[in-house]
Each structure stands twice: as structure tokens, then as C-alpha cells.
Design goal:
Helix content is 15%, strand content 36%. The protein has 236 residues and is α+β, with helices and mostly antiparallel strands. Strands 1, 2, 3, 4 and 5 form a five-stranded antiparallel sheet that branches. Strands 9-10-12-13-14 form a five-stranded mixed barrel. It has a two-stranded antiparallel sheet with strand order 6-7.
Length: 236
């Protein structure tokens, strides 16, 4: 259908009046693009990007920024350090420059040892007491364990609830030697071998230093627990 030029112009203006969204949709920068760039920039700040997930916070839906005809760039504001929670700047370098700041949170997750069931203080741990479960590693400031072999020979210093992360401060060494127990004292130095019967004067875990008494001489000396029956004499 043919329309005279003046009629075409009137129809075009009518469309603009009835549907202002035609121009509004294209003149503002999409907030989703700003968030995506902030996430990409934050991810580049982490050396463990393969094990981290990065998520930008929401932006005010009322925010209106001119559609960038240049390049969008991410940057760290002065004084900001990469971390779990940080603020990332996004700026437009086009003819109408602007910048906005986006809150970003990054999370590192991994498999760590957790308890299968409730465990009492003093319980000697075994592989049947733990399992691997995914946890937020950034929320474990006191450390964590990933190898079930690391709990071998360890006892709990405090009760543990089901599903709790097993952390190093929870673990103590099992007492290998008990106070009053008869042990074998020994030392091997420069070809000289010493063997004697002794008595432990305190409890001791494997590789722990304790005081012992030589039953032959009555002398009190220090030694290192090497097994349930043997204590190595410390010689200067």
C-alpha cells in the first residue's frame, strides 16, 4: 500500500508516541551485561578459577546508564583487594563515559571430611566415622582434612555432631603409653646400644616427649615415645 511522504512521517511519529519502548529499550545499558562483566573480572582475580564460583550481586532495577557504544571494562576500586567478598567497578569508555560498582561474592568449594554420626570426646577415629562431603572452603578458617588416612591414630578433643567438618584443632593423639606403665628404655649412639627397664611418669602419645624413670638406677630422664612399649632416651 502506498503512503505519501507526509503520511509516512505521521505514522512514524504515532508509533513513537504509542510505543516509547522502541527507543527506550536500546538507549540504556543492560544491567545483566554489567553483572556478567563484573563476574568475569572477579573470576580473573582468583588463581583457583576452576574451583571457584563467582556471583555478582543484584543492581537497582531503576539504574539507568547510557548504552555503551565504546568498551565495557572491569576494574578494582582503589584500596580494594581480591577476596571472598569484594566490589568490582565496571566502566564505559565510550563517548558518554560512566562507571558503576557491583558487589561480587566468590566461593571455593571442595570435598572435605565430615562425621557420619555423632562422636564423643575421646573417641578414637577410624575411616568408618567419616565421609567426604562438599563444603564452602572459605567458611573453614581453621582448616579441614581431605584424606581419611590423616585421622588414623587420632582421638577427638571434643564431641562432634553429625555432618560436622573434621578440622585439625579437633584432633589429639591417642595415648600410647600410660603413666606407671613399664617400658623399655633404649638409645643407639655412635655404635653404643643401651637397653634398660623403665617406668613412665606420665601419659604419652606417639612421638611425644615424656619423663621416665630408669628402674635400675632410679634416675629420672626424658625420652620420646616410639611405640606402646619403647621409649627412646634423649642423650646430649
Amino acid at each position: 500500500m502506498f503512503f505519501p511522504p507526509k503520511m509516512k512521517m505521521r505514522l512514524f511519529l504515532l508509533v513513537l508516541v504509542l510505543c516509547p519502548c522502541v527507543t527506550a529499550a536500546s538507549q540504556w545499558q543492560a544491567l545483566s551485561e554489567i553483572r556478567e562483566l563484573a563476574e568475569e573480572f572477579a573470576a580473573s582475580m582468583n588463581t583457583e578459577t576452576s574451583s571457584r564460583t563467582v556471583q555478582a550481586g543484584t543492581l537497582d532495577s531503576r539504574l539507568r546508564l547510557k548504552n555503551c557504544v565504546g568498551q565495557l571494562e572491569g576494574f578494582l576500586p582503589p584500596g580494594t583487594r581480591p577476596g571472598v567478598n569484594m566490589t568490582v567497578g565496571v566502566r564505559c569508555t565510550g563517548a558518554t563515559p560512566w562507571r558503576v560498582f557491583v558487589p561480587v561474592r566468590s566461593r571455593m568449594t571442595g570435598l572435605v571430611l565430615v562425621s557420619r554420626h555423632a562422636l564423643a570426646r575421646g573417641h578414637s577415629l577410624s575411616s568408618t566415622d567419616v565421609e567426604l562431603a562438599k563444603r564452602d572452603l572459605d567458611r573453614l578458617p581453621y582448616g579441614y582434612l581431605t584424606d581419611p588416612r590423616a585421622i588414623s591414630g587420632r582421638v577427638l578433643r571434643r564431641p562432634v555432631t553429625p555432618g560436622a567438618v573434621i578440622i585439625p584443632p579437633m584432633l589429639g593423639l591417642a595415648q600410647t603409653v600410660r603413666r606407671g606403665q613399664t617400658v623399655t628404655l633404649y638409645a643407639d649412639r655412635a655404635g653404643v646400644r643401651i637397653r634398660a627397664a623403665g617406668k613412665a611418669l606420665s601419659d604419652g602419645a606417639l612421638q611425644q616427649r615424656i619423663r621416665v624413670q630408669n628402674l635400675s638406677s632410679g634416675r629420672v630422664i626424658e625420652g620420646i615415645v616410639r611405640s606402646e612399649e619403647r621409649v627412646e632416651i634423649l642423650m646430649n
